[in-house]
């Protein structure tokens, strides 16, 4: 059943699971007094806010093109991953602040077995959810869903680090290991936050498609190239790509013999467009027709001055 879930459905479930983990991790912190478990609980609040914002952005991205947004709303998903990255950085700073306060005012750790069990239970919820969300994100090419899933995976690993730190603190009696685990959590989630913000900014700046997708585009175009006496009579150049959410776009010039009829040229262009969109899911192609002996130089430096 979950295989048919849309990204918006996964994000609603993510918000519900975040509420459950907030309760479990806050209870674990309340019982034990561990600042590491407190840091873990704070990240769950970020999970909840991130899931809610991502859900809203997925709804916006799914809206059809309109007069104000003729190319669609697909880039809305990049705002989601960027916002979640900012929330993660805020949580990391909050964790470090709590760690400094606990270093100044140390407190004993109690009932660690219960706290560790609650942390492991909440991590299991997040782990199973992240696994399903990543599969769906690849299927629907949803940047918002991928960002939320990656955040949950980070949460699982940081929870594992907290548990290890608490076990070592209990075994050795070194209470400061709890603080070390908290700082490690903060640094790890800060790294993930910076990564999400960077990837979001690249998407908003019309970053080119990945190398594998570009190779598929070139492979399709190469199949349509025609030559006569060693000279190309149908060729492609000025191939530019960009990605916007779950869509990607390619602009290309197709050069063909000037004596061809417009109907014949249009038929070839339609064939090329269909082949490109069949090879690359979510691709939209814009192909400009030019005679074989005509070159476009609009991107030369002298045209920019």
Write a structural description:
Strand 2 and strand 3 form a beta hairpin. Helix 2 runs antiparallel to helix 3 and helix 4 packs antiparallel against helix 5. This protein has 2 domains: 203 residues, Alpha-lytic protease prodomain-like (Up-down Bundle), CATH 1.20.1510.10; 94 residues, 2-Layer Sandwich (Alpha-Beta Plaits). The protein starts with 6 loop residues before the first helix and ends with a helix. It is an alpha+beta fold. Strands 1-2-3-4 form a 4-stranded mixed beta sheet. The longest helix is centred in the middle third of the chain and has 30 residues. It is 68% helix and 12% strand. The chain is built from 9 helices and 4 strands.
Report how far apart the termini are.
57 Å
Give the total of domains. 2
- Structural class by secondary-structure content: alpha+beta
**Proportion in β-strands:** 5-15%
Mean pLDDT: 80
User: Which residues form runs of ≥5 with pLDDT under 50?
Assistant: 301-305
Based on the structure given, which CATH architecture of the largest domain is correct? Up-down Bundle
Could you spell the SSE succession in H and E letters?
A: HHHHHHHEEEHEH
Oligomeric form of this entry? single chain
CATH class of the largest domain equals Mainly Alpha
Question: What gross morphology would you assign?
Answer: elongated
CATH superfamily of the largest domain: Cation efflux protein transmembrane domain
């Amino acid at each position: 059943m979950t295989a048919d879930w849309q990204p918006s459905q996964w994000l609603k479930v993510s918000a519900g699971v975040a509420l459950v983990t907030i309760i479990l991790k806050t209870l674990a912190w309340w019982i034990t007094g561990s600042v590491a478990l407190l840091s873990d609980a704070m990240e769950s609040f970020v999970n909840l806010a991130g899931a809610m914002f991502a859900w809203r952005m997925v709804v916006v991205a799914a809206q059809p093109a309109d007069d104000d947004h003729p190319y669609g709303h697909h880039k809305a998903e990049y705002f989601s991953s960027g916002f979640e990255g900012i929330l993660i950085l805020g949580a990391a700073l909050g964790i470090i602040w709590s760690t400094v306060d606990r270093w100044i005012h140390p407190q004993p750790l109690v009932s660690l077995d219960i706290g560790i069990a609650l942390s492991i239970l909440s991590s299991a919820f997040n782990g199973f959810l992240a696994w399903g969300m990543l599969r769906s994100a690849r299927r629907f090419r949803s940047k918002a869903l991928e960002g939320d899933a990656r955040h949950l995976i980070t949460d699982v690993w940081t929870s594992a680090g907290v548990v290890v730190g608490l076990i070592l603190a209990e075994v050795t009696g070194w209470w400061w290991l709890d603080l070390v685990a908290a700082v490690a959590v903060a640094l790890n989630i800060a790294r993930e936050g910076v990564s999400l913000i960077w990837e979001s900014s690249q998407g908003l700046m019309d970053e080119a498609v990945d190398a594998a997708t570009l190779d598929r585009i070139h492979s399709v175009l190469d199949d349509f190239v025609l030559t006569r006496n060693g000279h190309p009579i149908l060729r492609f150049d000025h191939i530019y790509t960009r990605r916007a959410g779950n869509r990607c776009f390619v602009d290309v010039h197709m050069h063909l013999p000037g004596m061809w009829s417009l109907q014949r040229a249009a038929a070839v262009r339609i064939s090329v467009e269909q082949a490109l969109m069949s090879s690359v899911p979510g691709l939209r192609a814009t192909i400009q027709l030019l005679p074989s002996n005509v070159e476009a130089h609009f991107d030369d430096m002298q045209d920019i001055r």
